[in-house]
Write a structure and sequence with these properties.
The strands form three sheets. Strands 1, 12, 13, 14, 15, 16, 17 and 18 form an eight-stranded mixed β-sheet that branches. An eight-stranded parallel β-sheet has the order 4-3-2-11-10-8-6-5. The protein is of the alpha/beta class. It is about 30% helix and about 20% strand. The two termini are about 20 Å apart. Helix 8 crosses helix 9. The longest helix is centred in the middle third of the chain and has 19 residues. It is built from twelve helices and 18 strands.
Length: about 400
C-alpha cells in the first residue's frame, strides 16, 4: 500500500522536491521499513558540495566530519576531492581507512591530546590550530615544523548554536601567541581562524569576523610576520522551520567582505558541515504512542533527544510531516486556526523526562501509533550525537 503524507507547499520550500520524492519512493518500496532511519539524498549532497566555495576566490573546502561521519558519505566526499576538518583520533582513523591524503586534512580543535597531535603528525598532517601557550608548547614538542593558525573570538549573535565561549582569544592575546610561535622557529604561524556559530542566520557576523581577522593580519605584517591563510570556519545555515539564506547568498556577502578587506594573495579555508549534509537528509520515524496529560496532547516517536535529535535541546526546531492513514475531511473555510490545528508536545522513546523534542507544536493531522513521521533537514548532527541510551537504537542510514 502506498503511504500518504500531509505535505504542504511550505514543506516543499524547506526541502528539495527531489529529495522528498526519493524518500517517499524508498518508503513505498520498503513496506516493512525499520525505523528510525536517516535517508540521505546523494544528488543533493553532491549539489551542496559543488556549490560550496564557488564565489570565494582561492578557497579550499574542508568538510567538518563531526556533522555526519558515516563512512559511505565520507567516501562520496573524498571522491569529489573535498578536504576534511577533524578533531579526534577517531575521526582520523576513519579518514585513514579511506586513504585520504594528509594534505586534505586539517584540525581546528584548539585543545588536542598529545596522542592526537602525534597521530596527525605521523600521518603527515601539517595544519594545526592553537589559542593558548599550552597548545603551542604541545605542538612544539609533538609536531615540530607544523603550520599553525590562531583562533580568535568573534560574535555569534544570530547563530542557533553559538560556539564563542569555549574557544578563541582576543586580538592582543592572539598576536602574542603568534609572536611566541614565530620566536620558537619550530611552528610556522601562517594564519587566523574563527567561527561565527553553527546555523548562523546573521551574515553580518562574517563581516565583523573578517574585519577583526584583517586587523590581526595587519598587526602581524607590521611585526614582520606574513600571514597567508584565513580559515572562516563553518556556520552556513540550512532551512529547518524557516527559510534560511542559501549557500550562494551567504558566499556573495562573504566574498564581498573579503574583497573589501583582503587582496587575492591569501588562501581561504572553509569548514562546512551542516550546509553540506543537513538538508540532504530526512529522518523517518514512527509514532509509538500518543497520550493526553494535564490537558496536553503528547506524541511519542521512536527517535528522540538521545538517539538522534540532540540538537533540539540547543534550540534547533524541526518540521514534522505526518503519514495520513485516515485522511481528515476537508475543513470548512470559515474554520479558525485553533479549530483546524491541535497543539502537541513531541517526545522521544526513552524513560528520561529530558527526552522532549519540542513543545507547543501545532499539527494539522490525526496522529496515531504506527504512523510514520518524516523529519526534514536531519542529515547533520543527528547520527553523530546519537547514543543507545535506554537501549533504543541509533538510526540506520541509507544513501539514496
Amino acid at each position: 500500500m502506498v503511504k500518504k503524507f500531509k505535505i504542504s507547499d511550505f514543506h516543499k520550500r524547506i526541502i528539495s522536491k527531489k529529495t522528498l520524492f526519493k524518500a517517499l519512493t524508498y518508503i513505498d518500496k520498503n513496506p516493512d521499513l525499520e525505523t528510525p532511519i536517516l535517508l540521505i539524498d546523494r544528488e543533493k549532497l553532491i549539489q551542496n558540495v559543488k556549490s560550496m566555495g564557488n564565489l570565494i576566490p582561492n578557497s579550499r573546502v574542508f568538510y567538518a566530519v563531526k556533522a555526519n561521519s558515516d563512512i559511505e558519505l565520507l567516501k562520496i566526499l573524498k571522491n569529489m576531492g573535498v578536504g576534511f576538518e577533524i578533531a579526534s583520533s577517531g575521526e582520523l582513523d576513519l579518514l585513514k581507512k579511506l586513504k585520504v591524503p594528509p594534505d586534505k586534512i586539517i584540525t581546528s580543535n584548539p585543545v588536542k591530546s598529545p596522542d592526537f597531535i602525534q597521530s596527525l603528525y605521523k600521518y603527515g598532517v601539517k595544519y594545526f590550530v592553537f589559542d593558548s601557550i599550552s597548545e603551542i608548547e604541545k605542538l612544539e614538542k609533538w609536531a615540530p615544523g607544523c603550520f599553525g593558525y590562531v583562533r580568535i573570538t568573534v560574535p555569534n549573535e544570530g547563530s542557533e548554536w553559538p560556539l564563542s565561549k569555549k574557544f578563541g582569544v582576543e586580538l592582543d592575546m592572539a598576536f602574542n601567541l603568534i609572536k611566541r610561535a614565530n620566536e620558537l622557529k619550530i611552528i610556522s604561524p601562517v594564519g587566523v581562524t574563527f567561527h561565527v556559530g553553527s546555523q548562523c542566520l546573521n551574515p553580518y557576523n562574517w563581516y565583523i569576523a573578517i574585519d577583526k581577522a584583517k586587523r590581526l593580519f595587519d598587526m602581524c605584517f607590521d611585526a614582520g610576520i606574513k600571514m597567508k591563510i584565513l580559515n572562516i570556519g563553518g556556520g552556513y545555515p540550512i532551512s529547518y522551520t524557516k527559510i534560511a539564506p542559501n549557500i550562494r547568498e551567504i558566499e556573495e556577502k562573504i566574498s564581498s567582505y573579503l574583497a573589501e578587506k583582503f587582496n587575492d594573495h591569501i588562501e581561504i579555508f572553509i569548514e562546512p558541515g551542516r550546509a553540506i549534509v543537513g538538508d540532504a537528509g530526512i529522518m523517518v520515524s514512527k509514532i509509538i504512542g500518543t497520550a493526553k496529560r494535564d490537558h496536553e496532547n503528547w506524541i511519542y516517536l521512536d527517535v528522540g533527544i538521545f538517539n538522534g535529535l540532540m540538537e533540539a535541546i540547543g534550540g534547533i526546531k524541526y518540521l514534522y510531516i505526518f503519514e495520513q492513514t485516515n485522511p481528515l475531511k476537508e475543513k470548512h473555510n470559515k474554520e479558525s486556526f485553533f479549530d483546524r490545528y491541535k497543539k502537541w508536545t513531541i517526545a522521544g522513546p526513552s524513560c528520561d523526562s529530558m527526552d522532549v523534542i519540542e513543545k507547543n507544536v501545532y499539527i494539522d493531522a490525526d496522529p496515531k501509533s504506527g504512523q510514520l513521521v518524516l523529519i526534514p533537514s536531519a542529515g547533520a548532527y543527528t547520527l553523530s550525537y546519537a547514543s543507545e541510551f535506554n537501549g533504543f537504537p541509533i538510526p540506520k542510514i541509507e544513501i539514496l
